[in-house]
Specification:
Number of strands: 12
Number of helices: 14
CATH architecture of one domain: Alpha-Beta Complex
Largest sheet: 7 strands, mixed
Oligomer: single chain
Order of helices and strands: HHHHEHEHEHEHEHEEHHEEHEEHEH
Radius of gyration: 21 Å
CATH topology of one domain: Aspartate Aminotransferase, domain 1
Strand content: 5-15%
CATH class of one domain: Alpha Beta
Distance between the termini: 47 Å
Helix content: 40-55%
């Protein structure tokens, strides 16, 4: 994984005589052969890939294609399709269900709050049935076009057995949001998932300075997603693709280092007298969720080293209160049913020294007791 994370999407650079990935910022590409351009527009409109010179930046871009190639390889798929954000990628997957006449989606809570919202609201023409992993098979219908699961889940870090879920889906495609695990810790496609989604804004970028989304999948699914992207214009910006490719090269090292720190913090949090519960995935990772006896808002307001902000996967540690931010848009009863309590805090561990992080957490937890 470490070797391919460095070289995926870059294998031809030496032959090109360059060391860094070329960044192509063109929005349009001149051609004196308008007949050939007409032919190629017809190809792009079907979602197929044409290997010739690009036509327009909304349709395709060489730097974006390099990132897609690299992510597909790391997830073990033939292809990937990149979007302007994680939610643009989610939306494209749902619109693809509607386009093929199968608008029903079965989903397992919890998922990211905005994903929950777009599914529950039906804004994109889909209908959702929320199910447990055990009741999923019974929830499937002839018009079910997708099963959606996030594992480890946001923000409770609940895990599901991907292989068992894929078997329960039968012929219905299983989409796994792999944002929290990354391909370093988990490759859902190897366990039967047909689509693997990332908010690339998080660990793939890794520095809190780039936004993007990507779906790794087979050729048929990729063509349908490119059709949606062709029509809606939600393509990843080439500069974002450049930064994401750079982020991939250090992804295994960042995930390993942050995971080691997170595991040590988990041990200390579990022994802390004012921590009610700690949630940490069996597969490990940099994410930690914990419930406190005290005021969670006081913790958010008291950290000085950790960054009190939404999002995750950056080199610095981020902490947030899901019920107030990432999952605020989910109804209170649905939040609680999914295990998202008002006392829950979610922490994305970065690359700081573990002792410095623990000292910051400890002083913030003391503040939360006094606030009660």
């Amino acid at each position: 994984m470490r070797t391919r994370a460095v070289h995926a999407g870059r294998d031809d650079l030496a032959d090109l005589g360059v060391h860094a990935v070329p960044l192509d910022l063109s929005t349009t590409y001149p051609s004196r052969d308008s007949r050939d351009e007409a032919r190629r527009i017809d190809v792009f409109a079907t979602g197929a890939v044409d290997p010739g010179t690009p036509i327009y930046g909304r349709i395709s871009n060489p730097t974006v294609e390099r990132f897609e190639e690299a992510l597909a390889e790391l997830e073990g798929f033939d292809q990937a399709v990149a979007f302007a954000s994680g939610m643009a990628a989610v939306s494209a997957c749902l619109l693809a269900c509607v386009a093929k006449g199968k608008p029903h989606v079965v989903a397992v809570r919890p998922v990211y709050g905005s994903t929950d919202h777009v599914l529950s609201s039906g804004l994109l023409g889909t209908e959702v049935t929320w199910a447990s992993p055990e009741s999923l098979a019974a929830a499937l219908r002839p018009e079910t076009g997708l099963v959606f699961v996030e594992t480890p889940a946001n923000p409770t870090l609940r895990e599901v057995d991907i292989a068992a879920l894929a078997e329960a889906c039968g012929e219905v495609p299983l989409l796994v949001d792999n944002t929290f695990a990354t391909p370093v810790l988990q490759q859902p496609g190897r366990h039967g998932a047909g689509l693997v989604l990332h908010s690339a804004t998080k660990f793939l970028g890794g520095h809190g300075d780039v936004m993007g989304g990507v779906v790794a999948c087979g050729a048929e699914e990729a063509a349908r997603l490119r059709q949606i992207r062709f029509a809606t214009g939600g393509i990843l910006h080439p500069l974002a693709a450049y930064l994401l490719l750079r982020g991939l090269s250090t992804l295994p090292l960042r995930v390993a280092a942050a995971s080691a720190t997170a595991a040590e913090l988990v041990t200390r949090l579990r022994a802390h007298p004012r921590v009610r519960a700690v949630h940490y995935p069996a597969l490990g990772g940099p994410l930690v969720a914990f419930e406190i006896d005290g005021d969670p808002h006081a913790v958010i307001g008291s950290v000085r080293l950790a960054t009190p902000a939404v999002s995750l996967g950056s080199v610095d540690t981020l902490i947030q209160h899901p019920a107030s931010i990432s999952h605020r848009i989910v109804g209170e009863e649905d939040r609680h049913d999914a295990g998202i309590t008002d006392q829950l805090l979610r922490m994305s561990v970065g690359l700081e020294d573990v002792e410095d992080l623990w000292n910051d957490l400890e002083q913030a937890l003391k503040t939360s007791w006094r606030a009660c």
